[in-house]
Amino acid sequence: MNELYELNFSYTTCKDFGYCLYYSIVTFTTLGYGDIHPLGYSHIIASVEALTGAFFIALFVVVFARKMMR
Questions:
Q1: What pLDDT digit, counting tens, does each position of 11-36 carry?
Q2: Which of 7, 23, 56, 70 is the most exposed place for a label (fewest CB within 10 A)?
Q3: More confident: 7 or 28
Q4: Containing structural domain, residue 19
């Protein structure tokens, strides 16, 4: 994720693992960005990760609901 942009800082590289993990969790859970957003090709990666996250969350809900109905 070299093309991240944070409004409070002037650099555009993801240098800290914790920061990259935060970006990934926000994308995967489809919470949305308030402080960072993707630029360039990272839009594609973020979109794929968001769709994957939505799919897995929906799958978890379906499996959990089926287990609770039994």
A1: 455 677 787 788 888 888 777 767 77
A2: 70
A3: 28
A4: 4-69
- 26 to each of 57, 63, 69, 70, how far by Cα in Å? 13, 23, 31, 33
Scan for tokens 């979109």, then name that residue. Answer: 47
Contacts by 5-14, CB closer than 8 A, 24 or more apart: 5/36, 5/37, 5/38, 5/39, 6/35, 6/36, 7/35, 7/36, 8/35, 12/39
Give the predicted TM-score (pTM) of the model.
0.64
CA angle (31, 36, 40) in 5-degree steps: 105
32's tokens: 């949305």
Is 3 within 8 Å of 40 (Cβ atoms)? yes
